[in-house]
Amino acid sequence: MISFIISFIALILGYFIYGKVVERIFGPDDRPTPAVLHPDGVDYIAMPTWKVFMIQFLNIAGTGPIFGAIMGAWFGPASFLWIVLGCIFAGSVHDYISGMMSLRHDGAGLPQLVGNYMGRTIRVIMLVFSLMLLLMVGAVFVYSPASILASIGGSQELWYIVILIYYIIATLLPIDKVIGKIYPLFAIALIFMALGLLVALLIKMPKLPEVWEIGAGMESWMTAQSHNGVDLLGVKSYFIKNPMFPAMFITIACGAISGFHATQSPLMARCLKSEKLGRPVFYGSMITEGMVALVWAAVSSWFFYSGGWREVMPQEAVNEFLAQTANTDGKTLIQYFNAPAVVHLVCSSWLGVAGGVLAMLGVVAAPITSGDTALRSARLIIAEFTHLDQKPIVKRLAIAIPIFAAVLLLLIWQLTNPNGFNVLWQYFGWNNQTLSVFTLWTATIFLYKYKKCYWITLIPAIFMTVVCTSFILMPLFN
Fold it and tell me: Of 121, 174, 402, 442, which is most buried with the most CB atoms under 10 A?
C-alpha cells in the first residue's frame, strides 16, 4: 500500500502547505461577513465553525467520494494520482475561492458570481446549468436510497414519498432547524466509517496495484482475476469505449473536483462568522472528502484487483458469480458489484454490525442530505435571480413548488425509462464538471481583476476545460 500511504500523507501536507499558499493569495481579512451584517433567521445565520465545517463536508460529499472512487476502480492506481493532485491543486482551490468570493459578495450564489465577472449572458447560461445539475441531484438521490430502503421494508413508491416530504421540510425551514441539527451527526458517521476502513486497511496491509504499475504492470493483476480464461475485470473492453483520458476525470469527481461544490459553498458562506475561517471550512472539507475518496479507492482496489470480493462473500455467492461469467451476456466484476453493494459487503465484513449501520448511513442518509441541500441551493439561486425575498414562507413556497414538480417529473422519467438512472448519472457527471469549468474561469477573472496570483485557478481551469470538451467529443472517435 505504498502509493496509498504516500497519497494520504500528501493530502494532509496539501492542506497545511498549499492551502496556506492559496489563503495568502486570496487574503481574508476582518470585514463583517454576510451572516453578521444581515442575519435573516432563515438562510443567513451565524453558526459555530465546527458545525459549519461538518455541514459543508456533508453537503459536498454525500455518496460522491464513495461511489465515484468505487466506479473509478476501472482506472486502477491512476485514481490515486487524480484524487491527490486534483483535490489539492483543483478541487480544494475551487471550493475555497468560490466560497470566499460568495463571502465578499454578500453571500451571492454561483450564477450571480459568474454574472458579475463574465457578463449577464454567461450568468443566464450558468443559471440553467446550475438548476439542471441541482434538479438532477435531487432526482438521482431520491432513487438510490429509496431502492435500498425498499429492500428492508415498504414499497419503493412509499420511500419516494417519504424522502420527497423530507426534502420539502429541509428546503423550506431555516437552515439551523433541520440541516444544522442532523447534518453534523451524519457527517461524523461518514468520517467514522472512513476511519474504520482506514484502520482495517492498515491492519490487513493488503498488496494493492501501485502507481508505478500503471500500464503494462497491470497485466499481472488482470491475469490474476480471471476464471477459465474469462477476464473477470473487463478493464480492457471498458477502455475501448472509455479511455482513461477523459473518462476518469468525469467518473471520479467529488473526491477530486466537482462543480456541484460551488453551488453549496455559498450556503455556508452565509453562516460563517469570519473570513479567516474559510480555509478550514472550504479548503479543509474538500481535503477531508479527498481522504474519504482515497480510502474507498484503496478498498475498491483490494476488492476488485486483490480478490477481496471472494473474502467478503459466502462461497455459494462466489460460485454464482463465476457461473454467470460463462454466459454471453455475463457481467464482469465491476459490473456485477455496483457501488452500494461494495459498500455494504466491505463495511459489514470489516466493521461488523456497526459497519452495517454506517454503510446504511453512507448509501442512504448521505445521498438524501445531498439532495435536500441541492434543492435548497436551487431555491436560493432562483430567489437571487428574481429578487424574491425568502424570509416569508409564502415566497419560499412560490419557488419551491415548481422545483419539486420538476424533480418529480425527472423521477417519473427515470423510473419509466429502463436505463434512466444510468443516463441521468452520465448527464449529471458531465454537467457537474462543466460547472467546475465556469467556476474556475470566474475565479481566475476575479483574481486577475484584484491583481492576485490567478495561476492557481487558471491552470486547473484550462485542464478541466480540455477534459469536458474531450468528453463531449469522445463518442465521435469511438
Answer: 442
